[in-house]
Amino acid sequence: MSGEHMQIGEVAARTELSLRTIRHYEETGLVPPSARSQGGFRLYTESDVARLMVIRRMKPLGFTLDQMGDLLDATDRLDSAEPLPAPERDALLERVRGYEREAAEQVERLRVQLSRAEEFARTLRERLDRDGGQRQAPAP
User: Fold this and answer.
1) Per-residue pLDDT tens for 66-111?
2) Phi, psi for residue 66 in degrees, rounded to 5
3) What are φ and ψ of residue 43, in 5° steps?
């Protein structure tokens, strides 16, 4: 096996995704393995790992599998060695900008949720501190 290819276990360790999740993304067409070994093992490249990292970052922001595929398609076409006509390139860049805006909006919503959760935890700590953190004895 070439040093540029990795088996699924190494990819799972590097991306912190489960084998099952990586296989699911293969089945949905998001990240097919770049090759197969003679024994039929999935083989991945750094590019495949980068695609999985994009997906891993999009998932907690609530993007759908279709949206993930659309963004990956747009970035693949932008990264292609073949030059794109200006209108097509502009349209692809606008798609990427749309995902950037949506991600920024979701990050802000998550910040608000995190702030509320931290406030709740602080309220509980203050309650425990006020009561001395002591438990009441059970009733006889």
Assistant:
1) 999 999 999 999 999 999 999 999 999 999 999 999 999 999 999 9
2) -65, -40
3) -125, 135
Token pair recorded at residue 119: 């406030």
Distance CA(65)–CA(87), nearest Å, equals 26
Do residues 19 and 8 lie in contact, with contact meaning Cβ atoms separated by under 8 Å? yes
Integer Cα distance of 85 and 95 in angstroms: 16
DSSP state of 44: E
Would you say the pTM of this structure is higher than 0.85? Answer: no
Q: Is the dihedral of CA 6, 14, 47, 24 positive or negative?
A: positive
∠ CA 51-69-53, nearest 5°, is 20
Q: Residue 15: how many CB atoms within 10 A of its CB?
A: 20
Q: Phi, psi (5° rounding) for residue 133?
A: 65, 10
